[in-house]
Structures are given as structure tokens and as C-alpha cells.
């Protein structure tokens, strides 16, 4: 009887019981066809250059002919690069980590004020946060160098108060970290603001109604609500800061503040026969950042981000 009912339903044209036509299978290819442009873009501009970079990192130089290479599997390039420039790796991670912490300390109160306290000034504050992107990264860094110059008001004031032991701010690690913090601050503000702006203010009111003080409410309610934005902002700040070389080049000294990005830049463009070393440093930096990011996301990640 059930078979007869199903047959009659198919004859009546019930869409739930009528089997799909053969032509309907063509629809299954549509999502894959939409992926083709993106896959081609990633293949041409990410995978192919990455393979070439990895190949260059394993090449060997022709004896007695600087600047000429032959294909090889010379793992010693990595050993030499890491042993010679390991301090630059540590310095880059330290500068990037310190800049990320400073960005968070500055960005969280600003994002909180924009999300809950700004009122009609919210859009104005948001524009002021985004406004630096309308200026070139290099021009912003050069302007920051002028702000920190020895004859600028900031340095003269600190010297007058005897708070500047070296007598100057530029060409020090302080200037490099300050430049990184300034240039990457919007990447921390915007994700945190987005998370807080989507949060329900009634949750904060519920915390206060339960007799929690402001610090407890911040720790148990506000920060967990902002966790996806904090995670995203941390990644968006730390990753480019670790590989940056503009701030160290324009704000730091020639030796004591150089980051790994400066070494890669010099090996590629100024050192004859430095391509394998530069490629090995690039691959090593990429792997190191990937390991740190995966560990960070695994420890502090949220379902919304992952």
C-alpha cells in the first residue's frame, strides 16, 4: 500500500517524492565553478611564489661566481641564516609582541568608549581611527620620525626633565616600538570595536545588577564578549609587525635595532649572492609565525573566530 501511495504521489507531481531529473545534477558544479577565480588567484600569486621561494632557499652558489646559483637541496642555508641572524629573529618577535601589547592597552579603552559611551560621536571617532589609512605607510612613519626628532617638543621636554638618558628617542628601540604601535593600532581597534558593538548592553547591566563591581564586570563579561575581536586584532597586529622593516629602517639605528625584515631586504637587494639566505630567512620567519599563531589560536581561540 505504501508503494502504491508513493507511486500515486509521483504521478500527482509531489516535489518531495518525485526523484530529481538528470539535468538537476548540473547545479552541483556551480559552487565549484565560483571557486575557480579565487583558486587561480591563490595559485598564481601565493602558491607559485611560495614554491619558488622555497626552491631558492635550497639553492647553492657556484664556486667563485657570486650571484650565480644551481638547483640543489642545500639545507645548510637555513643553518647559516639562523645562526647568523638569530638575534634579529628574537628582536623582531620582542618588538612585535611589545607593540601588540601596547596596541591592546590603547585600543581596548578606545573601542569600549566608541561602542558604549560615544553616542553621536561614534562615527566621528571611527573616522579618526580609519583616517591614517588614507596616508601612505612610509609617509606616516617619516612623520613619526619628525615627531620623535631631537629638536621636537617631545624630546626637548623629556631632556629638560632628565627623563631621556640617551638624549634622543630616534635610533632607539623605543622609537621602533612606538612606530609599530602607531602604524598598526587601527588593526587592533577595529576588530575589538566590532565585537563590542555587537554585544548586548543588557549583559553589562545584568552584571551590575548582580552587585559586581566595574572591574569584575570587565573581567567576567566585557572581555569575554570582546574575545573574538581581541584574537583577530592580535593576529592582525603581531603578524605584520614581526615582518616589518620600514619602522626599523626609518626610526632605528643601523645595527642595534635591525629586525629580520631589514636583513631579508638587504640580502635580496644589496648583498651579492644573498638570495638563498634571504629566502631561507623568509621561509623560517613564515614557519615561526605560523607555529606561534596556531599555538595562540589553539589556546585562546573562540568558535566565532575558528
From TrEMBL:
This is ABC transporter permease. Keywords: Cell membrane, Membrane, Transmembrane, Transmembrane helix, Transport. It is found in: Cell membrane. It comes from the Bacteria. Its main location: membrane. The keyword RNA-binding does not apply. The chain crosses the membrane at residues 32-53, 93-112, 124-143, 173-196, 217-239, 278-297. Belongs to the binding-protein-dependent transport system permease family. CysTW subfamily. One of its GO terms (cellular component) is plasma membrane. GO terms for biological process: transmembrane transport. It comes from Terrabacter aerolatus. Residues 1-24 are annotated as: Disordered. It is a multi-pass membrane protein. InterPro entries: MetI-like, MetI-like_sf. Residues 89-296 form the ABC transmembrane type-1 domain.
